TrEMBL record:
<dbReference type="GO" id="GO:0016811">
    <property type="term" value="F:hydrolase activity, acting on carbon-nitrogen (but not peptide) bonds, in linear amides"/>
</dbReference>
<protein>
    <submittedName>
        <fullName>LmbE family N-acetylglucosaminyl deacetylase</fullName>
    </submittedName>
</protein>
<dbReference type="InterPro" id="IPR024078">
    <property type="entry name" value="LmbE-like_dom_sf"/>
</dbReference>
<dbReference type="Pfam" id="PF02585">
    <property type="entry name" value="PIG-L"/>
</dbReference>
<keyword id="KW-0862">Zinc</keyword>
<dbReference type="GO" id="GO:0016137">
    <property type="term" value="P:glycoside metabolic process"/>
</dbReference>
<dbReference type="InterPro" id="IPR003737">
    <property type="entry name" value="GlcNAc_PI_deacetylase-related"/>
</dbReference>
Amino acid sequence: MTNVLDDSELQRILVVMAHPDDVDFGAAGTVAGWTDRGIEVVYLMVTDGDAGGFDDGVTREEMAVLRREEQRAAAKCVGVGDVRFLGYPDGRVETGFGLRRDIARVIRQVRPDRVLMPSPERNYERIYPSHPDHRAVGAAALDAVYPDARNPYAYPELLADEGLEAWTAREVWLSGGPVVNHYVDITGQFDRKVNALRAHASQTAHMGDGLPEMLRGWLGANAAAAGLPEGRLAESFQVIDTA
């Protein structure tokens, strides 16, 4: 286990993810706990998820609009009202200066104490979190936290043209990676996690009643790994001190 900032010390948390629904699969229960404690949470989605879904009758432009709407609805389930999108093409995200600048801009706008993002590392034991977009966004977001957002001389146009002062986020949480050093008991927030995922109907409707069972399987395994009593459910993260 690692030292983790106490939630009572936090005012704002920024969640940076590649696609709509990423945060809800990985961390919606944890986010619900944060908002319950009065912490402001902001979502930043790098893509609109336009390459997702299963309906050939829906155009990619229509899918992008739909998935934005679904993410906003899912966010409301866990107490998040500020959802932002960068509009990068789904499936083609690359780590680069442009993406780092766009994420650093939002870090300076939101001024979060903690930033949650996908792990930039591939997880060979469970491959699904290691989508190339996830890893690219994780790498760019981690670079945006350190060194970009805190360095007043990185992307000087953010200060000169937009008045955005440098900002240091003190802690990063990585989701879906091969290393875990922190678990959050979300048993009390499980139903809201399920509701958030069901809001992504274009992605989850085909799972039907099997969705809660699937979630209980892997969240229960997390809880067991954390040493929690049987019947508890947990989300897992790697927490990094970036102060």
